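User: Some background: our group keeps a shared notebook of sequences we're curious about, and every so often someone picks one and asks for a predicted structure to add to the entry. Today it's my turn. The entry only has the sequence so far, pasted here. Could you supply the structure so I can complete it?
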Amino acid sequence: MKITVVGTGYVGLVTGTCFAETGNIVTCVDIDQEKIKKLSSGQITMYEPGLENLFLRNQKEGRLMFTQSLSDAINGAEIIFLALPTPPGEDGAADLKYILGVAEDLGKLIKPTDYKVIIDKSTVPVGTAEKVRNVILQSSAKVLDEGKDLSTAFDVVSNPEFLREGVAVEDFMKPDRVVIGTKSPRAIKIMNELYAPFVRQGNPIIFMDEQSAELTKYAANAFLAVKISFMNEIAQMCERLGADVDMVRKGIGSDERIGKRFLFPGIGYGGSCFPKDVQALAKSANEVDYDFQILDAVMKVNKEQKLHLIPKINSFYSNNLSGKHFAIWGLAFKPNTDDVREAPAFVIIDELLSAGATVSVFDPEAMKNTEAIYGTKISFAKNQYDSLKNADALIIATEWNEFRTPDFEKISAALKSKAIFDGRNLFENSQMENLGFHYESVGRKAVTTSKK
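Assistant: Of course. Here's the predicted structure to add to the notebook entry:
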């Protein structure tokens, strides 16, 4: 099949590359000239494990191409994916200006005799498919001869992505399910053919109406955010009652009705999906006069959880952080990505800086994105141990695997005081006690063997 993917961000690049991997001819289009230049020259523009090899192979084989021209990209293409940003507006609602802007352009370019399936791959509010269809028809009416229209020349389909940053290639190539919203028999046939190579092991392609497909994505992300926030609330209770959140997690996670995933406590969720999708779903609820109380609570809990380590740090230093220097391991909102959007680490950095402290940071992949935001306000270390020089304490904000079994002798020698504040519960309390660290984590008793 000949496919066009509009947008070369995270979703667009993964989508285009993975469809090319199954033999399709894919053209990705973007208005960013510099990005297109880099991609066309074989330079991938983001970090995602496993993506670069597929990207380079399919580009070499001529199945993956890049252009700034929407007209050239859709020429001869039967399938057009819209993988465009839907950032939150000031009121929390998803901003559809990029999607509707491309829809208007498509209305001027599509020919009445050239059938196309136009697919919303971005996360969009319920009703977006209908809005896209109407914009295309309105735009086409301005350029078509009287008596002609595009009403039978295209279908708009909702096909939300369920990609986890860090394992997006695996998620795309071996999906748990594929959700497709359309009532068009012609579009259903094409979408079945398109996704057949990805569901050979029997995972379902679930067809439904467009509105249900659009809501499914929001519902999935919101539910996972609820699980995370619930567990963070349990962690708060554990600290106050003297319980161990890891034991509670194992106790409830063994119940198959609950499951083991998304039960790890920490310092809140971040990234490009959960924060904006929860907010957007809450806004959609308000628009239909429904008070989605759980989502309001989730947003409140997550905002507060990002600050969870700050009172612990303040207490250890008698509420005086002025002149203190902290090392932070982890900047990305989660491991195996360079994405720092809504990252809890940034909330911690801001609090420390405002209290008069200085900060040195290290992350395996997110240093460049962080430097673009903080510049010279913080120090950037060459490696995790270099960040510890002259630091009063270590703060862990992202659970990268390389942080799980560090050289504690190096840590002890570098820190002014053997103090670790762990927002991801990487280490065992007993281990920290034996090593003589002051160690505070999330939902567990503090280890207080070290002096300041």
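Suggested note for the entry: The chain has 17 helices and 15 strands. The CA atoms of residues 231 and 377 lie 33 Å apart.
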